[in-house]
């Protein structure tokens, strides 16, 4: 009787839970099969919720692509204003001069439309 009930419910019970079906009478076996069906459905529902949550946290495709500029690749990237540069100690300016001057030179060479 147990094998017949399990064969009938094979699509509804997770294979890992089949050995938990117990009972001495037909009614006990049926109740146990129903309980394992419910547990299997609960497991599937939890897996689906986890997958949905994982997909929601994934980064999608950006319509403009992914940025790969100095701000994205250099952890020490910082944008300086004219006031920052004016108030900067000369020793710090000397260290950063190689980064600051090419950026200013590129901006000066750009035309009206970029």
Structure commentary:
With 114 residues, the protein is mainly α. The protein has 2 domains: 2-57; 77-108, no CATH class. Helix content is 60%, strand content 0%. The protein contains 5 helices and no strands. The N and C termini lie far apart (81 Å).
In whole angstroms, how far apart are the ends?
81 Å
Low-confidence stretches: none
Kindly give the count of domains.
2
Strand portion, in percent?
under 5%
Shape type: rod-shaped
Q: What is the number of helices?
A: 5
* Average pLDDT over all residues: 80
Beta strand count: 0
Largest sheet: none
Radius of gyration over all CA atoms, rounded: 33 Å
Summing up helix and strand content along with how strands pair, one would put the structural category as mainly alpha
Helix % is: 55-70%
The helix/strand series, from N terminus to C terminus, equals HHHHH
Sum this structure up briefly.
Helices cover 60% and strands 0% of the residues. It has 114 residues and is mostly helical.
């Amino acid at each position: 009787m147990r094998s017949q009930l399990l064969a009938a419910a094979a699509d509804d019970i997770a294979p890992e839970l089949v050995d938990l079906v117990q009972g001495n009478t037909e009614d006990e076996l049926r109740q146990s099969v129903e309980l394992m069906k419910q547990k299997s459905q609960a497991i599937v529902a939890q897996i689906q919720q986890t997958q949905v949550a994982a997909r929601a946290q994934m980064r999608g495709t950006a319509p403009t692509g992914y940025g790969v500029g100095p701000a994205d690749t250099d952890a020490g990237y910082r944008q300086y204003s004219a006031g920052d540069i004016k108030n900067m100690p000369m020793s710090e300016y000397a260290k950063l001069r190689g980064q600051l001057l090419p950026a200013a030179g590129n901006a000066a060479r750009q035309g009206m439309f970029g």
